[in-house]
Write a structure and sequence with these properties.
The chain is mainly α. It has helices at residues 5-14, 35-56, 67-78, 83-97, 119-127, 131-143, 196-203, 229-244, 252-267, 272-282, 288-291, and strands at 154-155, 178-183, 189-194, 206-215, 218-224. The chain folds into two domains: 5-97, no CATH class; 119-295, Intergrase catalytic core (hpI Integrase, Chain A, Orthogonal Bundle). It has eleven helices and five strands. The longest helix is centred in the first third of the chain and has 22 residues, at 35-56. The N and C termini lie far apart (49 Å).
């Protein structure tokens, strides 16, 4: 019997890894530049390999290299998964094949539900967490951070933002606080602003020396004694269920940030499109349309 679908997927991904090469300027090289993408593609290709084995006993490296087999799989998946998952499957298989595939539309109706929290809800949840987790919740909410970005916080004078991007001068307009940087998706380093009273509490928890932490297989140098990553996300979900009776996930705090900033910037005279461009950069996007998902 041949290799398992999981082993086949790992092998396919390993052939495309280029972790020491920055994604900027290399988006079209057909390589994988981050561990997060490698993990996602491995999972996607494992499903594809299982489908091939069940269909004809083949493998990723034989019938799995045929575009018609790939399209059969994507059409099959269209009835099972959301558009976001289907697109990820397609991107992983494209990487494996080394060629573009036709976009397949999901047959499942995507439910566009609100994922944000009100300020009162956020502080109720934070109060129900430990100090390390609660402070992380306040920071994520006030600065629009992803879970893993909490582990990468640095003072602005220690590490500046990525220089290959053209940053909007209106970022953080109308807000006051302390500026830090975080490492986001694809290695992008961006400025974030944390309210001064929250930043003061953060600085009280500064470590004398950075420590190495691992979250979902990725290593970080952490400089503050606060929670982050998967552990913080799980803590947030549990605390939300205890206090509110439900949870929309820790990522909902980014939705809250985006929606509140949009309203704030428009009150201060910005058009909807200009406000969206500013918010997109503040949360670490450069495609304004990506930010639309946060504004529902």
């Amino acid at each position: 019997m041949g290799k398992s679908p999981r082993s086949q997927a790992k092998g396919a991904v390993a052939k495309k890894l280029a972790l020491n090469t920055p994604r900027h300027g290399n988006n079209s090289d057909g390589k994988i530049h981050s561990l997060g993408t490698a993990r996602s593609y491995t999972q996607a290709l494992t499903g594809y390999a299982k489908f091939i084995r069940e269909s004809n006993g083949g493998s990723l490296f034989r019938s799995g290299t045929k575009p018609e087999m790939a399209m059969d799989y994507l059409q099959h998946r269209a009835g099972e998964v959301s558009q976001k998952t289907l697109d990820l499957d397609r991107q992983a298989i494209q990487m494996h094949l080394g060629q573009k595939l036709e976009v397949v539309k999901s047959l499942q109706e995507t439910r566009l539900t609100c994922r944000s929290y009100t300020p009162d809800q956020v502080f109720l949840v934070a109060a129900a967490q430990t100090e390390r987790n609660g402070l992380a919740t306040e920071i994520a909410y006030s600065a629009g951070l992803r879970a893993h970005e909490l582990l990468t916080l640095r003072r602005i004078n220690e590490h500046g933002p990525s220089i290959h991007r053209g940053w909007n001068a209106d970022r953080f307009a109308g807000r006051d606080g302390e500026r830090y940087t975080v490492h986001g998706k694809g290695g992008l380093v961006r400025e974030v602003m944390i309210p001064r009273n929250v930043a003061n509490r953060l600085e009280e928890r500064r470590l004398s020396e950075p420590i190495r932490v691992t979250d979902r297989g990725i290593h970080y140098q952490q400089r503050y004694d606060i929670s982050g990553g998967n552990r913080w996300s799980a803590s947030f979900t549990e605390a939300s269920k205890r206090t509110l009776g439900w949870s929309r996930g820790a990522h909902g705090l980014r939705h809250s940030y985006a929606q509140e900033r949009m309203a704030e910037l428009q009150r201060n005279g910005k058009t909807y499109e200009d406000a969206k461009e500013t918010v997109a950069q503040e949360v670490g996007h450069f495609n304004k349309e990506t930010t639309e998902a946060y504004l529902r």
